[in-house]
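Run log, item B.
One chain of 120 residues. Sequence copied directly from the ordering sheet:
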Amino acid sequence: MKFEKLVPNIFYANIQDGIKLFVECLEFKISHDEIKSNQPFCVLEKDGLRINLFENALYAKEHNPEFRLVTQNIEEVYLHVSTSFRDFLHPNLSKITIRPWGAKEFALMDHQLGIVIQEW
């Protein structure tokens, strides 16, 4: 059995909040756009990763995911986020920190989800 990709579905009460985090801050590109439809939806992609964003207030209220993005250049990512999108830095992990398990990490959050940026 072989899988090629894990594609999370992320629900926002307002899809523009997710677009600000993923497209503006983390520089994902919109590869499929139904943002102006009755059920707003889009597919975001970057470096072989894919995320489905949905606007659905009920599901957004029930689902608050946290996940990790692994990189080989955490300092570059941190510099970009901390200079241009400081409001996304998580107050409990707002600086690059070597964690007890040996990984370098910092975290982002908006009102819907948390993202740990990690480098091993």
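Observations after the first pass:
- The longest strand covers residues 49-55.
- The chain has a mean pLDDT of 96.
Flagged for discussion on Thursday.
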